[in-house]
Amino acid sequence: MSDEIKLSPAQLDALREIGNIGAGNSATALSQIINRRIDMNVPRVSMVPLDQVPDLVGGPDAIVVGIFLRVYGKAPGNILFLLPQKSAFYLVDTLMGKKHGETEKLDYMDESALMEIGNILSGAYLNAFYTFTQISMLPSIPALAMDMAGAILNVVLVQLGQMGDQALVMETEFLAEDDGINGHFFLVPDPGSLETLIKAVGVE
Amino acid sequence: MAELIRVGMADYKVGRSPATIISYGLGSCIGISLYDPQTKVGGLLHIMLPDSTQARPSDNPAKFADTGLPLMLKDVLALGAVKSRLVAKMAGGAQMFAFANATDIMRVGARNAEAAKKMLQQLGIKVIAEDTGGTYGRTVSINLETGMYKVKTIDKGEKEI
Question: Which CATH architecture fits B4-150?
């Protein structure tokens, strides 16, 4: 039998609040870079059965661009920023000063620009986390892949799969004002990091 | 229209002709099919990890190559397949993100493939086709009418093995 860590509603709320601040930071950063208003939804913080995670982003065979960063520090984990292919192309158009619809595949420069976005969002997010919990976390160099959502999510889920059948997923959806861009930002703490985070949150 | 049976991650399904069993969006996971061409009975298992003994105990044996395969084998035989006629095909096991210092976790695709082959050998089932490795995702399906195992990718085309 697996012994999953059970989180109380108050603990989930506390994590949601931190997620909210982190995502707010990230949204502001993104908004400043592309000079557009970015809206975000209230972060989803929940224990999700592993096999249902791909459904959060449109199903396992939806084509997405994934920017992946490993998080180091006292509460290691993984960050994944997922954009539907269309959104990623639109974001590249915006970043590279191209006409909308011009990007039809990603070249080296495009990928590099998207990875940098992943970097900035992660930095902003983790910074908020630090302010709140005093747990310092550093993101690795980003990696990028464009493929099926299920295949990309595999990378984070496999690690969790060794420890249990559920994942604590902190997820926020970003939306640009003109609906051209929507993205999902995931912070998935390693199973061993959960306890550290909960302690730092200080809620029973 | 023949029935389309969907298999999620860390799960397996068995069935008989004319159904097709499909699993979407495999990265480092592997889809392993068993098929008896005479009774046209088969199954598809979607594993995540190679070895249950290296993980925390799970309620879900279908997550691992070493525990998932015997389980699916039992169900395929219960549907009327004959073990000596069973053949296996598999695909998946990619490494989606290339990192300079690939840890064991990053290499899990390759380890999944090795573990699946080892377990199939122990069970005495021959692997007749395989499409593993690479850096891209796959959607895989087994057609129980023909025994064809289809592998779909986003920009590496589609093939039958």
Answer: 2-Layer Sandwich (3.30)
